[in-house]
UniProtKB/TrEMBL annotation:
Belongs to the ROK (NagC/XylR) family. It holds the Pfam family ROK. It comes from the Bacteria. This is ROK family protein.
Length: 320
């Protein structure tokens, strides 16, 4: 049997998605369950197993040669465990071992969700063709991942490129991670909204106080709303410039709900980058919106599986 597919799992705080994906990144079968995020660890695992049961029942399943998992973090790729902040029942939960036994012993590759999105953007999105890239998700939190020398760089634990918790404000506000002035503490959607409200922005009649509502107000000319996005842009620019200076990425790709603000975010971000990315070798750094859609987590998990094990290399050889 040619194993020309991989199984992909995208595990987040609200949903668990699964798919069978071919070597061109096409999704041939898919399923999804809500994440019982506040339940105990076995109940959450039960939802993962329900997703896997649907995949393994597919007539395509015998063609699957590996499993890729992109999970909310932190993850520990070397230990095969996950401890997602938003899933308290899972702390150092042995997800890789459990998924391996639920799939008849297939090789399993685990990465953080930011690394998975990065794999997807490099394979099919805005980072395609770039050998050195930083990809980010800016939404409720801020995550990211790195492509270095043409390869996904997950790092030993699968969290490399987690730009949200780089400090860009030495004496800044305490961050839930324990540090101060992290990119996420300034640039995440909830923090954009919180700062706008604190500085006097008021929502419209619908009472919407999300970052999307702040973006709408900024676009309509509200200076407080625009200033909150400019501050987020400044934090992102400082983090991106630091990353580019360290490892010479030439493109930063930004996805997630906050990136949907468009020019309200990207205009001040590109201006701020000129202030922070100053050395000759980082001046050609560009910043663009992500282009993979809602399936990025699944496609990225599949990409991680494809780059993972020898079984997949064997599958590729067989497929030739
Ligand atoms: Zn932090």
């Amino acid at each position: 049997m040619h194993t020309d597919l991989v199984a992909a799992l995208d595990i987040g705080g609200t949903k668990i998605a699964g798919a069978l994906v071919d070597h061109q990144g096409r999704i041939l079968a898919r399923t999804q369950r809500p994440t019982p995020a506040q339940e105990n660890g076995e109940t959450v695992m039960g939802a993962v197993e329900a997703v896997l049961a649907e995949l393994t029942a597919s007539e395509l399943w015998p063609r699957a040669g590996a499993v890729g998992i992109g999970s909310a973090g932190p993850v520990d790729r070397s230990a095969g465990t996950v401890s997602p902040v938003n899933v308290p029942g899972w702390r150092a939960f042995p997800l890789v071992e459990r998924v391996r036994s639920a799939t008849g012993g297939l090789p399993v590759e685990l990465v953080g969700d930011g690394v998975a999105i990065t794999a997807a953007e490099h394979w099919q999105g805005a980072a395609r063709g770039h050998d050195n890239a930083l990809c980010m998700v800016v939404s409720t939190g801020v995550g990211g991942g790195l492509i270095l020398n043409g390869e996904l760089h997950p790092g030993p634990t699968g969290n490399s490129g987690h730009i949200g918790h780089i400090s860009v404000d030495l004496d800044g506000d305490p961050c839930p991670c324990g540090a101060r002035g992290c990119v996420e503490r300034i640039a995440s959607g909830p923090n954009i909204a919180r700062r706008a409200l604190a500085d006097g922005w008021r929502p419209g009649p619908d009472g919407d106080t999300t970052a999307a509502a702040v973006a709408t107000a900024a676009r309509a000319g509200d200076p407080v709303a625009a200033a909150s996005f400019a501050r987020a842009a400044q934090a992102l620019a400082a983090g991106i410039a630091a990353t580019a200076t360290l490892v010479e990425v030439d493109i930063a790709v930004i996805g997630g709900g906050v990136a949907k603000a468009g020019d309200v975010l990207f205009d001040p971000l590109r201006r701020a980058l000129r202030d922070y990315a100053t050395l000759s070798f980082v001046q050609r750094l560009t910043v663009v919106p992500a282009s993979t859609g809602t399936d990025a987590g699944l496609v990225g998990a599949a990409a991680a599986a494809l780059r993972g094990g020898s079984t997949v290399d064997e599958a590729r050889r067989q497929a030739v």
